Amino acid sequence: MEENCVIQGNINVNSPLIFDHIMSGALKVYARANQSVVVSPFILGGAMGPVTQPALLAQAHAEAMAGIALSQLVRPGAPVVYGNFLTTMNLKTGAPTFGTPEANLSTFAIAQLCRRLGLPLRCGGHLTSSKVSDGQTMEEAADSMMTGLLAGSNFIFHAAGWLEGGLTMGYEKFVMDLDHCGMMLRMATGLHIDEDSFAQDAYLESRPGGNFLASQHTLKNFETANYMPELSDTTSFEQWTDDGSQDLEKRANQQWKKMLYEYELPTIDPNIDDELKAFVARRKSEMPDEWY
Known about the structure:
alpha/beta, TIM Barrel, globular
């Protein structure tokens, strides 16, 4: 552990402008052991900070830098990640909101401030206030995830499954998010440009007015040319109707159940498995449950 980072802790600021003894104490423990922490101000505009984004950005930056500075006072060079969890709230009800345009704009600004410090950035992933895997879920979650990606995040929390502001998770949402993560990963790889991608032979084979679907170039590249999502339905309305008129949530339900049914436990030495279980049982009996 002196030479390698093998574990990471998440340190949330008690915004506005407070590190309580639990968070600051945990930060010091990790820093002394030369292990990484993600210092993440958790701010809902209008509750733990003002409603205007420039003020929230200044507050979030100050809170993050205070925690980062503390880690370096404890042990210079201790690994740290600049965290970001700055979002909005419904000012009529007080409910947290995610994937909003204001929160997304702040993520872009936070990313620039983080780069000025030369630190790795943590952002949120597929975040939503919705309770089920509906249109609201994917609208908010996709916007939040895309923003984190375009901001240049090095580390994303909650990339899959998040529902109801993080109070719960859903298996349908989980596999839907995984599909979308694949799309985002494909986009992040950028364009691959070489002689084959210019497809000169495909133009010569298909000729003006021809069809490229059956060309040798298409047959050679069809498996890798486009990302193929497992859950999307691109059939005609008639085909979709004949197949049961299933929406995305129903298809996702079938997908996670299939994954669970087909899952195979990884192999492990039985003696090691028994020792690990005994260690967990012993530690649980030695330590009383805590509210945190």
